Amino acid sequence: MDRTKPSAILLIHCPDQKGIIAKVTEFLSRHKGNIIDLDEHVDEREKIFFMRVEWELDGFAIAREEINDRFNEEIGAHYQMVWKLHFTGQKPGVALMVSKYPHCLYDILSRYQSGEWEIEIPLIISNHNDLSDIAARFDIPFYHLPINKDNKLAQEQQQIALLKKHDVDLIILARYMQILSGGFIKEYPNKIINIHHSFLPAFPGAKPYHSAYQRGVKIIGASSHYVTTELDEGPLIEQDVVRVSHKDSIQSLMRKGRDLEKIVLSRAIWHHLQHNVLVFKNRTVIFE
Amino acid sequence: MDRTKPSAILLIHCPDQKGIIAKVTEFLSRHKGNIIDLDEHVDEREKIFFMRVEWELDGFAIAREEINDRFNEEIGAHYQMVWKLHFTGQKPGVALMVSKYPHCLYDILSRYQSGEWEIEIPLIISNHNDLSDIAARFDIPFYHLPINKDNKLAQEQQQIALLKKHDVDLIILARYMQILSGGFIKEYPNKIINIHHSFLPAFPGAKPYHSAYQRGVKIIGASSHYVTTELDEGPLIEQDVVRVSHKDSIQSLMRKGRDLEKIVLSRAIWHHLQHNVLVFKNRTVIFE
Amino acid sequence: MDRTKPSAILLIHCPDQKGIIAKVTEFLSRHKGNIIDLDEHVDEREKIFFMRVEWELDGFAIAREEINDRFNEEIGAHYQMVWKLHFTGQKPGVALMVSKYPHCLYDILSRYQSGEWEIEIPLIISNHNDLSDIAARFDIPFYHLPINKDNKLAQEQQQIALLKKHDVDLIILARYMQILSGGFIKEYPNKIINIHHSFLPAFPGAKPYHSAYQRGVKIIGASSHYVTTELDEGPLIEQDVVRVSHKDSIQSLMRKGRDLEKIVLSRAIWHHLQHNVLVFKNRTVIFE
Amino acid sequence: MDRTKPSAILLIHCPDQKGIIAKVTEFLSRHKGNIIDLDEHVDEREKIFFMRVEWELDGFAIAREEINDRFNEEIGAHYQMVWKLHFTGQKPGVALMVSKYPHCLYDILSRYQSGEWEIEIPLIISNHNDLSDIAARFDIPFYHLPINKDNKLAQEQQQIALLKKHDVDLIILARYMQILSGGFIKEYPNKIINIHHSFLPAFPGAKPYHSAYQRGVKIIGASSHYVTTELDEGPLIEQDVVRVSHKDSIQSLMRKGRDLEKIVLSRAIWHHLQHNVLVFKNRTVIFE
C-alpha cells in the first residue's frame, strides 16, 4: 500500500467467533469509514481471530481521539478483543543501537536520508565509538555509552533516559552486540527489532557464521525479530537466505551475510512501520 | 486452508466503491453464514475491487442452489459485480494433455494417486504415443490423437468431444507441444492451464532453454498461466526460478528446468483447485 | 556435464602442498589422458587440498584396472593422498528404503523410469506395507520388513543381506522413518543418503514441521545428507528452502515441504551419481 | 577467496585442445609458482577452453613485468590463447555515473567507506545535480555534466577526459539514466558495469517495473551486465529476483526492486574486482 490520504489502521485479535468481520466492517461503514484494506486470519489451532483493517479518515464520522472508546463500546468489549489503533502520516521516532559493524547502520541511514521511510531518527546509541564518524556524516547525534559487566544496568538507565527524552517509538538493534537486560526489554515490548545473522532457530547466539561453516550448510540466512527476554527467541518478523558452498570461507560467509542482514532488517522495519505486524504467543501475523 | 467441513466460496470483482466489504459480510452474517476466510484487494490503478470470501455451509440459511440468485438480488446487481460461486468437497474432472516429456505427467499422476488433490482424472490426451505406458501404469484412459497441419481442427473437435463426454472442468497442458486453436480455447476460458519453460515474458515460444543458454542468463525459470489466444501471454498464475551458471549446458538447463516446470505447474493447479484465482485484464489475483 | 564417451574421475584429497595440480595434470597428460573437467579447492583452515579431475579413457595409455596402482606409485603415495576412482557408464545399484510417505518414492521412480539417472533399482525395502502398490506399479521388488524394538537388529541383518545380494552401491532413505543402527551405517559409509524435512541444523529429529509452525519461521527447508551415526548430523549434500507465512497451517507446511523434500533429495542423489561429492570431516565439497 | 599475500591471476581462453591445463600448471610449477586457485571450463558447443589460475608471487621465479612475455613465449602463442594478467593488492580507480536515484550510490559508497572493496573512487559523474549532497557527505568530487540532445557527444568527451585524467579502470553506471554512445563504450570494453531493473531479457528498455506490473509477473528481478553497443544486451554478470504478487503496486515493485538492484550491482562489481569474470561471445564465465 502506498497511499497519501490520512487513514486509520486497527490491528485486532480475539477468540474466534462467528460474525466478527461483519461486525467490524458494519461499524466502520455505519460511521462512514471507507475501508481501503482488510485482511484477516484465523489461527485454527489456537482458535484466535486476527484482523488488520485500514480505512480513510476523510469523511469518517468519529473523531480520531474518540475512535478507541467508541470501538470498545460498540464492539471490542463484546468480543474480548485486544487491539491497537494507528494513524498514517505520523513520523515515529526511531533510535538506532549499534556497535562496530557499519553495514546495517549505513543501509538504514541511506533509506532515512532518501525519504524511503516516514520516520525521524533523533539519535544513535553505541557501546563503541567506531561508528561515530558515520553518524556525523549523516548529522545524527551519537551517544557513546561503553558497557562492561559492572556498569551495564547503569548505562541502560542512561540509554532509557535518552530514549524517553527523544520520545522514541521504535528501537532498532542494527548489529548491536550487547544483550539487553529484561528491565530494558519490558519498557519496549514489541518495539525493539533485532537482526540476527543466521536463519534462526539454527545457530542462535554468537558466531553463527563460524558455526555455519563448521556444519557445512549449503544455505545461510538472517532473521529479524522482536526482542524478548528469551535470547534470539523473540517473534520472527522476516527471514531470508542465500546459497553458499564449500568455496565460501568464514570471511566470505560474513560478506554474503552482511547483505542479507541489512535487507532482512530493513524489510522487518518496513512491516513494523506499515503497522502490518501482530504478535501473538511469540509468533507474528504479517499482513502485507 | 486445509478444512474438512463443507463451505462455499465467492470470488467477486466490481468497480471499487465504499462499503462493499460491509455489505457482503453483512449479507453472509444475516443468513447465518460463518465466514472462515476473507481476503480482498483493490487495484488502485484500475479502481477495481476483488474479494474472496469463504463461509461454512453448515447452518447457512440459504440453500446451495439459491445462493447465486439471492446474492444477485441483495448485492451483486447493485454493485455491478461479476462473481463465481464454488463449493468445496466437489471433485472436478481434470484432463491432461501431453506430448513426449513425462516429468509433469508423472508428477501430476503421483499427486493424484496419493490423494494430494481432490480431483478425478478421467483421461489423458496426447498427440504422440510415447507416454501411453505411463497412463497404463496409473490406469488412466489414454487417447492418442496425432496432429498434423491438415487434421488439426478435426482432431481438436475429437478432443473437445472427449472432454465434454468426460465432463471435464479443467485442462492441464503438461508440456503439450501443440498450440491450441482459438476455437478450442474459447470453449474453456480460464480453464486451461499451461506450463511454459521460461520465466515469461523472457523467452516466449519454442526452445527457451536454448535461448537462455545463448543469452547467458544466470537464472532460469518456469511460468504457469491460463491459456488465451495470445500465445504465451495468458494470465500468469505462478512462476519460479533457479540459479544457473556458465557450467550449465543446454542439457543441464533442461534437467534443472524439468524440476521447476513440474513444481510450478503443480502450484498453479493447486491455486486453481482451491478457487484462489481471479482473472482480470490478463492478470491474476491469487488469494492464498 | 552431460557426456557420452567413457571417462574416468578421480576424487582426491591430501594435505595442501605446492605443485599438486601440476603433478596430477602432468601424470594424466603424460599418459595421453585428455582432461575434460578439473576443479580443485583448498580448505585454508584445515590446509587440505581437494580435487576432482575427469579425463577421457579413449586413448588413455593405462588400462582401467591399473590406474589405481599407477597413480599410487607415481603420485598418490608421495602426497599422502586419499582418493577414489570412478568410471562413467556404469549403472550403480540403488536401493530405496521407505515407510509411509509416497512423494519421494514416486519422484525417484519417475526419474528412474524416464532414464534421467543411469542406475538400477533392484529393490525397495520398507517397514510398512503402505507403498507396496507403488512398487508394483513400477515393477520393482518390494520387501516388507516390519520393525519393532525387539526385532530391529535382526531385521537390519535381513536388510543388509538383501542389499548385499543385490549388489547395492547406494541406499536412499526416501522418508524412511526408522533410525539405522550404527552397525548398518558402518557397512555403507557415505553411501546412505537421507532427506530430512527441515533446514538443518534447525529442527532436527521428529516433527520438524510442527516445530517450524510453533517457532513461526518465515522459511522452511529440506536437507539431504549422508547418514552417519550422529542422527541428522551427517555431511550435508544439498539444502533448499521455500517462503511460508502465518497463513500456513502445519498441514500446508507439510504440503509445501513435500515438494522441497523430493527435489532436494533428487539433487543430492544426482551429485552423488555424478561423483561430484567429496566428504571431509563431516562437510562436503561438491564439485559441480 | 580472502587472502592477503600478493598473488597473480591469469584469465585465459583459447580453442580447446588436449593438455592445456597440464601445460599451464607445469609452467607455473617449473617457475616456482604455488597455485592457490584453479578453475577451468570448457564450452562444449563452442569448443573453447577457459581458465582462471591464481598463484602466489612470493617465490615465483619470473618478475611481474616479464610474466606476460614469458607466458606468451612458452605457452600462449602455441595455443592461440587470449589472456589477461592481474595482480592482487592494486587498488583500481572506479568512477560512478549516476542520475537521480540514490540507492545504488549510497550502497556503493557505504561499501567503499567501510573498506569492503579494495578500490579508489576518485569521482562521481552525473547528468543531474540531485545527488551532489551525497557525494559531499562522502567527500567524493562530483561532476555535474547535464546532457541534452545537442550536447551529448561533447559532454561525453568531457566525461572521458575526466575518466582518463583520474586513471579510471572501471565505470559503474549506478542507475545512470543516459544511453552511452558507441564511441564512449569502445573506450572501455568490458569495463563499464550497468544495473538494469528487470530480469533481462524480460522488460529491456525504460520503465520495466511498469511493464512487470502490466504483465502481472509473480517475480521481479535485476540484472547487472557489461555495457556494449547493444542496449541492455551486454554480457550478464549477475541476476537475482524476488517474489511479488497482485498486492504490489508499481510503487512497491520499485521499492522491492531498489534492494535487488543495489545488491545485484554490488555482487557484479565484486566479481569484476576479484578478476573472476571472463567474457566470450556476449556471455560471461564467472569463476567464483
TrEMBL record, chains A, B, C, D:
Q: Which GO terms describe its molecular function?
A: formyltetrahydrofolate deformylase activity
For this UniProt record, give its keywords in alphabetical order, as a comma-separated list.
Hydrolase, One-carbon metabolism, Purine biosynthesis
Q: Which domain of life is it from?
A: Bacteria
What Pfam families does the record tag this protein with? ACT (PF01842), Formyl_trans_N (PF00551)
Does the keyword Metal-binding belong to this entry?
Answer: no
In the Enzyme Commission scheme, what number(s) does this protein have? Answer: 3.5.1.10
Name of the top EC class for this enzyme? hydrolase
Annotated ACT domain ranges read: 9-90
Reaction(s) catalyzed by this protein?
A: (6R)-10-formyltetrahydrofolate + H2O = (6S)-5,6,7,8-tetrahydrofolate + formate + H(+)
InterPro entries noted in UniProt: ACT-like_dom_sf, ACT_dom, Formyl-FH4-Hydrolase_C, Formyl_transf_N, Formyl_transf_N_sf, PurU, PurU_ACT
Which residues does UniProt mark as catalytic? Answer: D232
Q: Does the keyword Hydrolase apply?
A: yes
Give, as in the UniProt entry, the pathway in which the protein acts: Purine metabolism; IMP biosynthesis via de novo pathway; formate from 10-formyl-5,6,7,8-tetrahydrofolate: step 1/1
Known function: Catalyzes the hydrolysis of 10-formyltetrahydrofolate (formyl-FH4) to formate and tetrahydrofolate (FH4).
- Its family? Belongs to the PurU family.
This chain belongs to the protein called Formyltetrahydrofolate deformylase
Q: Which organism is it from?
A: Agaribacillus aureus
What gene name is listed for this protein? purU
